[in-house]
Amino acid sequence: MNMLFAETLKKLRIEKGLSQSKMAEQVYVTRSTVARWENGSRLPDAMMISRLSKCLGVDAGTLLSIVSENGESPNVIMVDDRKIILAGGLPVVEAAMPNATVTGFTRPSEALEYARANRVSLAFLDIELGKMSGLELCHALLKINPRTNVVYLTAYSDYAIDAWNTEASGFMLKPITAEGIQDQLKKLRYPFSLGGAGL
């Protein structure tokens, strides 16, 4: 537990006049993730430190200097170019995988940057992402780490065949549910530890 970081983060958030929910919204995580940072049970990674520093208006070095690397929980990402989908989906993923570090992205480029700096165990990808499709993002993520599990999220079942041709682990129609995610976890190509939850 890193109580120094927890206390610093809470102090900076309050000084900025942000609720946990508002800060979570600005950095694309759930409110419970912020709560875990502030109670010292979780630490954000380097990319999240950068987001937090922008949100709080402080130098990233200030936050990095009081946080250490934490590789205990699996990294799970969700990529969707619509913020409202992320806002609704992140809590569902976190509920299904409470011991994972769950991070959302609206831009594929940011997701790839994160994947280069962190070992991503599981990626939930929307298929229609603008300039880069989820199918292309899948290929790019697998080049970085061939053992990343990819589950596609879409509102259109027409994409199923194309999705299966990318070595993905699964395919889910929106809206996603915790039960649906738990079902996908049983079918992953590369199972990983969920910190005691097990597969």
As for the CATH topology of the largest domain, it is Rossmann fold
Q: Major sheet: size, sense and barrel closure?
A: 5 strands, parallel
Beta-sheet strand percentage? 5-15%
Q: Can you count the helices?
A: 10
Question: What is the approximate shape?
Answer: elongated
CATH hierarchy class name of the largest domain: Alpha Beta
Provide a descriptive summary of the structure in words.
The chain has helices at residues 3-15, 20-27, 31-39, 46-56, 60-64, 83-96, 108-117, 134-144, 160-164, 178-185; strands spanning 75-79, 101-105, 120-126, 149-154, 170-173. It has 199 residues and is of the alpha/beta class. The chain folds into 2 domains: 3-64, lambda repressor-like DNA-binding domains (434 Repressor (Amino-terminal Domain)), CATH 1.10.260; 75-185, Rossmann fold. Strands 2-1-3-4-5 form a 5-stranded parallel beta sheet, sandwiched between helices. The protein is elongated and about 50 Å long.
Short description:
It is built from ten helices and five strands, in the order αααααβαβαβαβαβα. The chain has helices at 3-15, 20-27, 31-39, 46-56, 60-64, 83-96, 108-117, 134-144, 160-164, 178-185; strands at residues 75-79, 101-105, 120-126, 149-154, 170-173.
